[in-house]
Write a structure and sequence with these properties.
Elements (H helix, E strand, L loop, with lengths): L2 E6 L4 H12 L2 E7 L2 H13 L4 E5 L5 H15 L4 E4 L15 H29 L2 E6 L13 H20 L3 E8 L5 H8 L5 H6 L9 H11 L11 E4 L3 H7 L12
Parallel strand pairs: 1-2, 1-4, 2-3, 4-5, 5-6, 6-7
Helix pairs in contact: 1-2, 1-8, 3-4, 4-5
Length: 262
């Protein structure tokens, strides 16, 4: 049966990979983003795969814009069966006491409130129809503290919101889950590494595997959570972390670790 998927932040990175993967799985796809040029490129790519796709300009920090987009996607592509909330801003490290409060507030409006607004706009419609799947984008920041005083607590909040919604919507046939990527080899991360804003050696040293996920790896996890194979899975956060969650503690053991190159 044909499904309609909505991806916020679908113009690039993880969001674009999710949009393309869901199209390959047979979904029509709505992309909500502020970057029109990139979004239209992804729409054209999806249409080339034989699926319907449309772009809706939308700043997820604006709940009224999301309500309009939800109504428009239902009219153009049909009611949403899947929502992926990928829109987010990613900062550099900073101190809590010295952080830029304007950037802090903007990040909360996009990363947390944008996720919340999307879940409300589309979740209400899924509830009324009696089914659907929502996947939020968390992070390894949802698990442990990192020196990102807006992004880190915001991703913790996204995880908790996911669990709340899973319970509220479960009896209406709507599943709500979260994926939690580690550092993902997006174009943005590559640019930060090149600019000296991220240390690739330190990043690699904190993982169990010798490779980082790319956007397609995260999209595969999202597609699974939206699939019939995950029909009894809700309220979970699935790490796509190359073993970061296991390794970050293991490698900090003060008594030493069993082999030198860990």
């Amino acid at each position: 049966m044909k499904r309609t998927a909505v991806v916020t932040g679908g113009a690039g990175g993880i969001g674009a990979a999710c949009a393309i993967r869901l199209a390959k799985d047979g979904c029509d796809v709505a992309i909500l983003d502020v970057d029109g040029d990139q979004a239209r490129g992804i729409v054209a790519h999806i249409q080339g795969l034989g699926a319907r796709a449309a772009y809706y300009p939308c700043d997820v920090a604006d709940r009224h814009a999301l309500e309009k987009a939800a109504a428009a996607t239902a009219e153009d592509l049909g009611p949403a069966d899947i929502l992926v909330t990928s829109a987010a801003l990613i900062p550099n490290a900073e101190s809590v006491l010295d952080m830029d409060m304007d950037r802090h507030e903007r990040m909360w409006r996009v990363n947390y409130h944008g996720t919340l607004h999307a879940c409300i706009a589309y979740g209400r419609r899924m509830r009324a129809r009696g089914g659907g799947s929502i996947v939020t984008l968390g992070s390894i920041n949802s698990i442990l503290p990192l020196p990102l005083p807006a992004y880190n607590p915001g991703k913790v909040a996204v995880r908790r919101l996911t669990e709340l919604l899973a319970v509220e919507l479960g009896r209406h046939g709507v599943r709500v889950n979260c994926v939690a990527p580690t550092y993902v080899l997006t174009r943005g991360l590559q640019e930060k590494i090149s600019a000296g804003q991220r240390d690739l050696a330190k990043i690699m040293a904190s993982h169990a595997l010798d490779a980082l996920p790319d956007p397609d790896d995260v999209a595969d996890a999202v597609a699974f959570l939206c699939s019939p194979q995950a029909s009894k899975i809700t309220g979970v956060m699935l790490p796509v972390d190359a073993g970061w969650g296991a390794a970050v503690s293991y490698k900090s053991y003060a008594g030493g670790v069993p082999w030198e190159d860990v």
